[in-house]
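Table S5 (text form). Sequence records supplied for joint modeling of the two-component complex.
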Amino acid sequence: MDRSTFTRGLALTLFLSITALAAGCPGPEEVPPDAARPDRDAAVDAAIVADSGPGDAGTDAFSPDAFTFDAPGLDAYTEDAPSSDPDAFVCDDPTGCYRCTPTTSEQFLDRCTSASCEPFENTRARLPLLREDGTLPPLP
Amino acid sequence: MGLVLGAVLALGLASPSTGHAQVDCNTLPRTVIGVGGSASKPLLARLGATLAGLPDPTTLIYASPGACFGITPYVDGTPITGTANYWLPDGTEQTCRLPTAGLTPDFGMMGTAATLCSGVTALPAGIGDFAGPVTGWSVLVPTESSQTSISAEALYFIYGFGPSGGVSPWTEPGQIFGRNATSAALIALGLAIGVPADRFVCGLAGSGQPCLDVRSNGAMITALDTATNPEAAIGFVSSEVADASRAAVRTLAYQHTDQSCGYWPDSSATTFDKVNIRDGHYFLWSAYHFYVPVDGSGAISDPDTRRVIGYFTGETPATAAVPILDITIDNGTIPECAMQVWRDSDLGPLYSYAPTDPCTCYYENRATGSSACATCSDTSPCASGTCRRGYCEAY
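The corresponding structure-token record, covering 535 residues in total, follows.
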């Protein structure tokens, strides 16, 4: 890694840290300050998707594309990303939620939210018939 | 299975009597007769009571033996008979007798698509499929249970294997409650968890199956409320029915495959905002389907049926006397205009959705009693967004 790449990587790290703090993506059971306004994201999202018409995901401030092309000094960033998928690096919050505009079912399901949630541990301790690799056996 | 369903209908098992003095259904004024699942019965009850109170009343009659019965009469021509329910203007449920010779219903109503019913590969010619509002599907435990969440994988073992699936505490025979393959709730849950409808280990009492088929949404609530071991008891119903029974049952947070946390239909276990259905965090939901005879242009043939179903599809405008949006929201059902996600097939992939006439703000105020949205009027326009129904919607 040369100095230029290191500097860009550091800049990216700082930018992402600030962005993550600004995004304020809650952990699975955290209740953020705006929990009393559960409609906020929905209303904003509705406005966003309206720009693209029904059925379109639209884009927002955390769009990977916006990040890639609008953030200064990051145009050459490629090799330092911890994931081969730059979208995943930008959009996957450390707490596990997805903080960009969702386009797939998985992203909708794991999108950052102020709603409460309760995890269920899919472990062999809880599901003893799970296979060792974590997959489901066929129905009897 | 269609022939079997038809035989059951012809045998007059469409709906049990509630013990009231029964009249002949066809003596009631201006009838519109439907058949289908019990999940939608509370919604139809609210509309039926409203229509019965109009100056020119319409009698909405509904038999609810199971969702797939909503398509069977159109598939095999078997008429429905037995008894059905209708509602007085004050909401009181009444029972009437269907003709002994049977009749073809004016509409069928289901929480899932007809083609998910066994033996139904395509809609019969002359039958239209009209989308209604959205219902959630809730996995329930008695309020005495300590359990708070469940996963798709856990449900796969519970309903695909029964107690031998080993998912503690749901390992006791006789405490796992389910439905049969004619139930939209079962079909929807099965799609989500990967257990085909005919592979649920559920059967009627005495069948030897470890999961008891309780036969209706209402009976599921009773079964859970009276379970002999509440900690081991589990079942599922429509979210509207669950909401109306929160004193007896508790909805579990549901964690879908690959989801990192389980969510309730609402933003928490105690709210009624359905935000997680509306924004895509809660996977278990589907839009109601109305199956109705149509003419050559695809329009509903019978004028009264067209008017009644039109309240749900938007073809019949809401009025002060028939405030269909309020009726829908008050029932815990979600109008299309409050959704931010949609799917093109039952329990299928989600995508962002922008309704043409959004009602998110109105919905939330009606459902929860408050909204963070600004209010507006002709003399007090919105600073941003669009004024709709007294609230500044996002667009």
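Note: The first strand of chain B starts at residue 23 and ends at 24.
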